[in-house]
Design a protein that fits this description.
The complex is a heterodimer of chains A (275) and B (81). Chain A is an alpha/beta fold and 275 residues long. Chain A is built from 8 helices and 10 strands. Chain A has one domain: LigB-like (Protocatechuate 4,5-dioxygenase, Chain B). Chain A is globular, with a radius of gyration of 17 Å. Chain A starts with a strand and ends with a strand. With 81 residues, chain B is an all-alpha fold. Chain B has one domain. Chain B starts with a helix and ends with a helix. Chains A and B meet through loops of A and helix 1, helix 6 and helix 7 of B.
Chain lengths: 275, 81
């Protein structure tokens, strides 16, 4: 049977690539170390498949079609379309249709209705973390797009429920596979709105603290505070999916640092998924 | 409020070939989109707040990145108009 071998979260942001050289040395070192630490843990966990939970930054979907949740069930997905991501070493990234369809079927049986795609472009949201983790061997990647870009957005509770569902589905899949859930995005940032550039450190610290306490308080806090703390912060949904997969416990902060050069409160986390 | 055609224009300008076309001949490129005259004028004038009220903020940012506006200038215009 397949098993959940890890749950992780990491921030992303175009400026982590475009402005990398402009980031102060000490922050650059911490960012590198945090990404590499997640990579080390993924390698140590001998992960065969990563379920990568991220928003679509208008790379696949336009206003013509805005799915709340879309599971990539294709045999392969495309590398990042952004011109400034051309250094990313993979133009095509293997998926895992067997497990991905099992996730989709399990979801439908349980009253969730995901959209499906047989070929997605994996934009910087997924590829920056994969790139910076410097994995020696890239596992198969099942992309799960969660809309945190174009309101209305899926509820926070639902994101936790998706995480729980993914774990149940993974653990009922017949093939021997080690699967990790990786949520990408957050923590606080603000894009294309009046507060663009703001990083809300107190909000981030409170969010991080609540990941280690009560799931209910975490959701209540985020529901109340997200609207006033930057639209990019909505990507914390992807952390909630990882949190749900981990059973709502075992959160460990790998690092957090506000990085004004990349206008993101950069967070990195790992969950203990067993025991 | 979302202006569909404005958003579609910004979405399609993510394609580097379309962006090059747009930079080379903005007015002809804009003819392909049934935009309202006020929207067309806002694009001509780089009226960030006007456009911000009508499209997705991420699309707005990509658009101004594509046109070569520096983030600092974009942020100033978001705040001050």
């Amino acid at each position: 049977m397949a098993e959940l071998a890890g749950a992780f979260a990491a921030s992303h942001g175009p400026l982590l690539i475009r402005e990398w050289e402009a980031i102060p040395r000490d922050q650059k070192d911490r960012l590198s170390k945090a990404f590499l630490e997640l990579g080390r843990r993924i390698e140590q966990a001998k992960v065969d498949v990563i379920v990568a939970v991220a928003p679509d930054h208008w790379s696949n979907f336009s206003l013509d079609h805005v799915p709340s949740v879309c599971i990539g069930v294709g045999a392969a997905n495309e590398g990042p379309p952004e011109p400034w991501m051309k250094g990313f070493p993979h133009r095509e990234i293997p998926g895992h249709p067997g497990l991905a369809l099992h996730l989709a079927e399990s979801a439908l049986r349980e009253g969730f209705e995901p959209s499906l795609s047989h070929r997605l472009k994996l934009d910087h949201g997924i590829c920056i973390p994969l790139w910076r983790m410097e994995l020696k061997r890239l596992p198969s990647v099942i992309p799960v797009i969660v809309n945190s870009i174009e309101p209305p957005l899926p509820s926070l509770e639902r994101c936790l429920a998706w995480g729980r569902l993914f774990r149940k589905a993974i653990e009922s899949y017949g093939e021997n596979l080690r699967v990790a859930v990786l949520g990408t995005g957050g923590l606080s940032h603000s894009i294309g709105e009046k507060t663009m550039g703001a990083i809300y450190e107190n909000f981030d610290h409170e969010t991080i603290a609540l990941f280690s306490s009560s799931e209910k308080k975490l959701v209540e806090f985020l529901e109340a505070e997200l609207p006033a703390h930057g639209n990019g912060s909505e990507e914390v949904r992807n952390w909630l999916v990882a949190h749900g997969a981990a059973g709502g416990r075992g959160f460990e902060l790998v690092d957090y640092l506000p990085v004004p050069t990349v206008i993101v409160g950069c967070g990195f986390a790992s969950w203990r998924v067993n025991g | 409020m979302r202006d569909y055609w404005l958003s579609r224009l910004f979405f399609e300008l993510q394609n580097p070939a379309a962006a090059a076309d747009f930079r080379a001949n903005r007015e002809t490129f804009l003819q392909k989109y049934p935009l309202e005259e006020s929207v067309r004028a806002a694009i001509r004038d780089n009226d960030v707040p006007f456009l911000a009220a009508r499209t997705n903020p991420y699309l707005l940012r990509y658009y101004f990145f594509t046109t070569g506006m520096k983030d600092a200038e974009f942020i100033r215009r978001l705040r001050d108009g």
